[in-house]
Amino acid sequence: TADTLEAPLSGGKAQAHSAANLVVTWEAANGQNLKDYGEKRLTKLKTSLPGFNLSEQGIWSPEGQKIFYGEYHIDMNPPLTQLLQIKSVQDDFVCLTGTAIQNSYAEVKDAFKKSMLALKSKD
Predict the structure, then answer these.
(1) How far apart are the C-alpha atoms of 79 and 73, rounded to whole Å?
(2) Residue-level pLDDT at 45
(3) What is the dihedral of CA 96, 97, 101, 105, to 10 degrees?
(4) How far apart are CA 9 and CA 67, in angstroms?
(5) Measured between alpha carbons, how far is 42 from 69 in angstroms, rounded to an integer?
(6) CA distances from 15 to 4, 9, 11, 20 (A)
(7) Which terminal CB of the chain, N or C, has fewer other CB atoms within 10 Å?
């Protein structure tokens, strides 16, 4: 249950009641295509995160949107699963990374996906 879980926060700190979190960033696309950008980002993660293990990547197209995704595990204590999602919005890429303790990931994966669909253009 959430009462007994701890999840890492920035700086490697842990806090109870935080089994999952989301980080959203906007980055200039600079003419890059979605697939190439997503693959480059996953490569950077692989080289910077010890224990990185990619389980799945691709493009999904819900509601007419193209979203690059990569799901991967990070071997640490506690073990984590992250879902990286990226979509093009105007001249930017919006990147949403959902992080969860591995044994809680299945419970929050759909919420991570819904969160990405809810992100709209910055008018």
Answers:
(1) 7
(2) 94
(3) 50
(4) 26
(5) 9
(6) 10, 7, 12, 11
(7) C
Taking alpha carbons only, the member of 96, 26, 107 closest to residue 67 is 96
The kind and range of the H/E element at 2 are none
pLDDT digits (tens, 9 = 90+) for 65-99: 899 999 999 998 889 999 999 999 888 999 999 99
Dihedral pair phi/psi, residue 80, rounded to 5°? -120, 155
Q: Which two tokens stand for residue 20?
A: 């999952």
CA angle centred on 86, ends 81 and 92, rounded to 5°:
145
Rounded to whole angstroms, the Cα distance separating 106 from 20 reads: 11
Split at pLDDT 50, 70, 90, the class of 62 is: confident
Of 105, 59, 110, 50, which is closest to residue 82 (Cα–Cα)?
Answer: 105
Are the beta carbons of 34 and 93 closer than 8 angstroms?
A: yes
Q: Which two tokens stand for residue 78?
A: 């506690």
Whole-angstrom distance, CA of residue 5 vs CA of residue 67: 30
